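Memo to structure team: turn this sequence into structure tokens by end of day. - J.P.
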Amino acid sequence: MSAGLQRLLRPRSIAVIGGGVWCENVIRQCLSFGFDGDIWPVHPNREKIAGVPAVRTISDLPRAPDAAFVGINRHATLGAVADLADLGAGGAVCFASGFLESEGEDGDGANLQEHLLQAARDMTLIGPNCYGYINALDGALLWPDQHGAQKVDSGVAIITQSSNIAINLTMQRRGLPLAYVVTAGNQAQTGLADIGAALLQDERVTALGLHIEGIGDIRAMENLASIARDLGKPVVALKVGNSDQARAATVSHTASLAGSAAGAEALLKRIGIVQVSTLPEMAEALKLLHVSGPLASNRIASLSCSGGEASLMADLAAPCGVIFPPLSAPQKKRLRKALGPMVSLANPLDYHTYIWGDSAAMKAAFGAMMSGDVALGVVVADFPRDDRCDPAGWDCVIEAVIAAKKAGGKPMAITASLPENMPEGVAARLIENGIVPLCGLSEALTAARVGAECGQEQPAPTRPVLLPRTPHRTVTLLEGDAKAALAAAGVWVPKARRGVSIQEIAAVLQGMTYPVVLKGEGIAHKTEAGAVVLELGDAEQVLSAASDMPADSFLVEEMITGCLCELLIGVVLDPAHGYVLTLGAGG
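Reply from structure team:
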């Protein structure tokens, strides 16, 4: 963790600049969470903020704070940040909006953000246009609002550009232990990747989740992936901006350039960051990674006491990217002994309710399922409402899963088909015993797929990604020129010759092998324009085709015969992600 981010994210002293309700909330959150460092409010007129004595100016602070929450208007923020930098503060969170993200509505936004960076100089800056962070490990919260986090000894870190999504994630009731929740806002100076690299170096952080609007600094993202690979800590990303509307929203929200969905997917895959599609998927994947770590494979054993649940699990296997391997003969023998003659043996397994409450039989059946070539066992169990029912009857499932994990040593999970049917108390009990509490069937299996992808060896890319650039002008090459350039780079291309008249074509045909293809040059979509003719077997056919073709110059190529398939290869310059290579069927 860099020195500036170390002080900012794990502070022993916090300055709160401003006296409004947002700043009062920051102080109250730190106090209620048990922060045992110094808290110094700064306000020109008020004696106390949230009951804590205030100083009048930043220069009146007893010493340089490790972290500062700047909760004043955007214009005053510039001066406060400059004063903090002069004092030698570790870093600051800038709460105010109205910077680059507002450039479309306020022409001064970009200029203000540039001045903010100049004011900060070398001091670490998170934001602007962000809520700050929750450090639930040390009780340090530069956080101006409500949240649902609780103090933990270890857990996952999540970084997002959206403060509201951050709030929502803290309110989850899924049992996900949150060590850090950080909002990055506009990423004017410090990006998601910089923050992520710092958080991963905290030994108490087990995995990292990224909610990404725009990747931004590609080199920083490559560095994050490298650090994660070296530390053996998985990173899961939810990249938004896949539709035109979403891409427009990211620009207005945090001034982020979303780029293409294909470009983002390719970049993240190249550097070893696994993707999910929804917030619930990210929460469940991070939970599995926190409890069990990366998985050895995507081979899963599924158990439920319902044929309906077994069918649902089976249907979800392919869409979620997991495999339910068939049972081996030794497994079937053990299962038959535990379940009796009336249960159909398969994976997913419907073990019926014959053995419900029979602890020995349930443990034997669960253990038999886990004895196969699987990396994770998933038991489907929805727990009853404790306000209307007695959940004690479900203890047998928990005990059997714990026993099966201890006996086989393989990761195991209990998933509720409906998220609300996995009570927080049950989730906490499961985590204490090394069992993953998952919410939702598709989310559970997606988490398994993510765990398996994270478990694959991730070799470092041999070369860095080619960075995007802004082309000065667009040039459409003639096909002959383009293929000549490819040939110069070592790519094999068919023998070709050019001609601008019937007479030149007749001359260039000497020495060529038939059949040939005639193409009209300078036409992008040749087929639609009648500017390509295939399988010409002699000079007469070529000259006849040329006389009928709407072109001023021509390319004659020897035709490749005996093809098995056609492959389209293209390279696109994605402004957010660099050069993207596309492979597809077609010509």
